[in-house]
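Subject: Sanity check before I submit

Could someone independently write out the structure tokens for this chain? I want to compare against mine line by line before I put it in a report. The sequence has 144 residues.
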Amino acid sequence: MKLDDIINSWKTDCKIDKTDLANESLKTPNLHAKYYEWYTKENLLLAQSEHEYHKLYKLKTQYYSGKLSQDELDELGWAQHDLLVIKQDLDKYIDADDDVIKMLLKLALQKEKVDALKEIIKCLHSRPFAIKNAIEWMRFEGGY
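---
Independent answer below. Compare away.
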């Protein structure tokens, strides 16, 4: 699922029809179920992405340390790294590696999706109070 899909869906779902507050109140559990299902799936994908990152980091550590065999390099599709990197510079090379950068961007996007869904779920928890306040305000305006 794309972050834009989540945001656009929420832009539609967050609107409360003040002319039909009873039905809006009844929609809350369904909205919660929808976004919680998305949250669960995206959170699992986040965990998977974090594991992929750690595996890649380990492989890149071995790569820049010169500890991968030619067979392993061929399997990964990587060329032999000619420069032997000393331990204290290893993080600099790994952090600047294109594969690691792509993985970190993927991880950041996944975290954004999970965070957005968390915030939507928090907002859904307050939806009944917003509807109740709207009803009370309408009563007040009506003189009840």
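---
OP: Matches mine. For the report I'm noting this point. Residues 74 and 119 are 44 Å apart (CA to CA).
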